[in-house]
Amino acid sequence: MDFALSEETPGWSLKRLLGPAAGEKLAALAWNRDLREIKPHRRARSAGAQSAIGRKPAEERVFRPTLLHLADRIGTRLRAKSRPGRTVTVRVRFANLNSATRSMTLDAPISTTVILAELAEELVRAVLAEHPDEKTISLLAISVSHLEEHWDQELELPLGLQDEPRRPGSKIGMSRWAADRAVDKIRDRFGWDAIGYGSVALGVSRSVPDEFRELAEKDL
User: Fold this and answer.
1) What is the pLDDT of residue 94?
2) Rounded-to-integer distance, Cα 184 and Cα 177, Å
3) Which of 30, 81, 109, 200 places its Cα 20 to 30 Å from the Cα of 96?
4) Does pLDDT of 110 surpass 50?
5) Residue-number span of the structural domain to which 126 is assigned
6) Measured CA distances, 23 to 7, 20, 37, 59, 94 (Å)
7) Pairing between strand 85-94 and 136-147?
8) Which residue has the higher pLDDT, 7 or 178?
């Protein structure tokens, strides 16, 4: 049923068409009466990205470049606001539309693209190992939460730990972060497509234009 509403539409008519609650609320809005509290802007508590990939085999050649692309988008946003995060979560959607998630919380917050991608790959492999009968995936997503409000990267002593390459304050971690910052500066000046990871630039077909992705990204 099509109908037009204006401030002259009687309240009883709206209630009859839409019900008491919706009719009363719409009538009040038509007269510019809105008692809802104005909430100031709140900083996002997480940053994430997802990619619908169609029906693809659950293989490394499929999920690895996709995860690197997602990590690139998330890491760029985190570094731009100096808000690394401690918890990494992945979501895998299978061909039957069922989804599985897995997460890990780190000792130190991260915002480096490669480190984030490596952790996401590890989590996705764990999800697939838990669902051996699922041979096809249709969507991959990464999110980073427990974001730091104020953060300065600190150099860590080389102690020979197993996860040292993934620690942001290690020598390798600092090098990866410096490389990302160089990429960020080039993109700021020449655009996103001016530089990137080769496996992403050559292997990932973007299902949604970057302009639309940016509209859905919360301000950090």
Assistant:
1) 95
2) 10
3) 200
4) yes
5) 46-150+180-216
6) 12, 5, 20, 52, 42
7) antiparallel
8) 178
26 lies in the same domain as 111: no
Q: Is the pLDDT of residue 106 over 60?
A: yes
CA distances from 111 to 95, 173, 176, 209 (A): 31, 10, 10, 23
Distance CA 86, CA 105 (A): 5
Question: Which is nearest to 11 in space by CA: 29, 33, 27, 32?
Answer: 27
Find residue 199's DSSP bridge partners. none
CB atoms within 10 A of CB 67: 26
> In terms of domains, do 144 and 125 share one?
yes
pLDDT recorded at residue 36: 73
Sequence-separated (6 or more) residues with CB below 8 Å from residue 108: 86, 167, 168, 169
One domain for residues 56 and 18: no
Q: What pLDDT, on the 0 to 100 scale, is given for residue 6? A: 47
Q: Predicted confidence band at 2 (pLDDT cuts at 50, 70, 90)? A: very low
Residue 159 lies in a domain: no
Task: Tell me how many domains the chain contains.
Answer: 2
**Which ranges of the chain would DSSP assign to H, the alpha helix?**
11-18, 20-30, 60-80, 113-130, 171-190, 198-203, 210-216
Non-local (6+) Cβ contacts of 76 within 8 A are: 113, 180, 184, 187
Q: What is the CATH number of the domain that holds 95?
A: 3.30.1490.100
> What is the tens place of the pLDDT at every residue in 175-206?
888 899 999 999 999 988 888 876 555 455 45
Co-location of 112 and 198 in the same domain: yes
Query: Does residue 134 carry a pLDDT above 70?
Result: yes
Extract the tokens encoding 206. Answer: 């973007």
